Description:
The complex is a heterodimer.
Chain A: E1 7-12, E2 17-23, H1 25-31, H2 34-45, E3 59-63, E4 77-82, E5 89-94, H3 99-104, E6 109-113, E7 120-125, E8 128-133, H4 142-153, E9 162-165, H5 168-171, E10 179-181, E11 185-187, H6 192-198, E12 201-206, H7 217-233, H8 263-270, H9 276-282, H10 294-297, H11 300-306, E13 315-319, E14 329-333, E15 346-348, H12 352-357, H13 367-380, H14 384-399, H15 418-429, H16 434-438, H17 441-449, H18 474-482, H19 494-500, H20 518-521, H21 526-545, H22 549-552, H23 561-569, H24 575-595, H25 627-638, H26 649-654, H27 657-662, E16 669-675
Parallel strand pairs in A: 1-6, 7-12
Antiparallel strand pairs in A: 1-2, 2-16, 3-4, 3-6, 4-5, 7-8, 9-10, 9-12, 10-11, 13-14, 14-15
Helix pairs in contact in A: 2-21, 2-24, 7-23, 13-15, 18-21, 18-25, 21-24, 21-25
Chain B: E1 2-6, E2 21-23, H1 30-36, H2 41-46, E3 49-51, E4 67-70
Parallel strand pairs in B: 1-4
Antiparallel strand pairs in B: 1-2, 3-4
Amino acid sequence: MRGYCGKILEVDLTNKVCREIKIKDEIYENFLSGAALGTWWCYRNIPAGADPMGPENVLCMTAGLLTSTGSAITGRWMVITKSPSTGGIGEANCGGTFAPHIKGCGYDLLAFKGASDKPVYLYCDNNGPVIKDASHIWGHDAAVSEKMLIEENTIPGKKVPAACTIGWAGENKSWMAGVCNDNGRIAARQGVGGVMGSKNLKGVVLAGTRQVFGYNTEEIKRLSKMCATRINKAFLPPQVPTGLLNIAKFVPELTLSPDGIFTGVLMGTWGTAGASGFAAQTGEAPIKNWGGSQKEDFKIPKINRTDGSQLLRLQTNRYYCYSCVYGCGGELDISNIKHNDQGYTIVHKPEYETQWDFTGFLLNDDNDAMLFIGEYCNRAGIDTISTGGVVGMAIESYENGLLSKKDVGGLDLRWGNAEAMIKLVKMIVHREGIGDVLADGCKRAVEILGPEFAKYAVHGGGMEPPMHDSRPDPQQATLYATDATPARHTTGGSLYYGCMHLWKKVSWAPSAVLVGSKAGEWQPSDEEALKVLAASYFKRVVDGAGGCYFGFILGVGNYPMFEWLEAATGWDKTPDDYMYIGKRVYTMRQLFNVKQGLDPWYSRPHGRMVGEPPLKVGKNTGKTVPIDEMMMMTWKNAGFDSETGVPLPETVEELNLNYFLNAPDSEFCEEVAVYG
Amino acid sequence: MKIEFHGPGMCDFSKMDKMGYIEVPEGTTLRQFLKIVKLPIIWTKVFPLFVNYEKVPMNTVLKDGDIVSAFLPTVGG
């Protein structure tokens, strides 16, 4: 074996039929697996102009090529579909323990097409798939649903199955809904859970026990041991107070090349939220719906009350996702927090995005409210980044008189009013009152409420941006603007690119070791565009392999992605070859969006994200990103038309994408079994 | 000889080339190297410092191509 199963399962929910399809090796050799395989399948099977919430849309769940081969930090699973929020390719990924179960059933990908006339779930084990009734599960939150599905499908003496589910938000077809696993972890972005809800698909239960092997198992293990050993040595003694890390608060002003091995120091000890305090003080964390500054709006005492490191006092346990040696996950006991009207007890430690979105971003210094909302969103199965974004839009609209108290159901929707924030989140999840308008994100809300709301609707191409301010980091801004899944922080940025060290392995990747202000360093140039593209192509490789974002910022020396892929496949490819695959996938994603009728300029970020107009106070004072020039420079270097963002015919030809995307199914696919 | 260095922003990177290497005389010890890059010693007392991903004594003589990594916090999430 070469790491992949070589088969996918297509589930026709309309006709309740499943087809097992063998995929030719050349697809894996040219795209890898994981998210790339999902995008390839979506491109070929979703017609142009398809309604994302209609039966013609296809929803793929996939595991990466390296998952289950013995490689470390490669246990992500991915959901790919046409996104309702952007209208382009939708992609979300998640950790936990679900990914290996997909390959355990003998498939690299599960593709759901059509729509069921009643709630159903897919069950699959070594004997094949069965579509089962889920009427009794519908209406329960994601975590309860998962527990119910696992319990009713557990056979004594056999391996306990894994399940993913949608929660209330997915059932309500929210464009911000995600798909959950492991008791509230969530593949959150781009409304993939809403698409699942539109198909009446409540969950997927996987109980297969098939094994997957790489070409050179011993080499995979050796590389994993090296990675683990380095990470384990790079941890900080827990007695070091978090506040000490604030001495580094000036560091993000610099562009230099850190050793990514130290990312584990922060995230292994405190989780991703541990860095929120100095993220705020350095201008990394946007404040007051991207319109404020830490200096004026969220001063040090408030930061100290809400700093992510405070969460450790509630922590009962650290945990690792499948194959992880990093362990940024944690569980908290929130039994005794305020606002806990749902009786939550042990919950996932909030990620940085959730933590900052519902504290400093909305000027809320009530950490208990943030903890409650985080868990409520996890169980509802809704994206906390997008939810925080629309809440910010609503608050600012209320503060400025565009929304009245009556409009928002009687809430006093002011900055920092925790009780009002909690109630609004519940209204969004259940589509009550103004929540029905906000449940599909900022862009859709403006379409309903009117163009006067646009100035407070911060998004890029329909996606609410994450809690990483792009004004001080033009590379981040360009990634937000040019990726086919826009406004995402998990592809790169100046600091992350500096961590990746791609230039050590990839012949054309520019070095990024020079010291200087990030904004000052950046002048639109071919070299800067190549950094954006190098990060983007590498991300496509990592997502094809099932790797984790926190793996790739360890750097290619510490996280030997190219070597793992070689050991798993035995293809005799170089890092440049793998990056060329990344380029093919990157271009295919753009072609998907073009096929679906999107003008690539659609993802130009909201003015606030690029300093239009520039802030007048705080760390990001006066910073404006020349985003149009950067987008065009990036497209030019990608082989796209620099004016339109559409891939040039010669680029498509060179990458052989006409063949891979348009040749008949018989070229690549062979039906080997039918169930149902 | 050339030493690859990764360190925090307060260091002196003026001698670093574009690929991240700093040229130092043969026989340079770790302690001497830290003086060259002006990394405050307190930083190494509190945070990890590695040579080729191992903790080593300050009097260790560096070799051409060694990687010296000093802690630099990065934000993610």
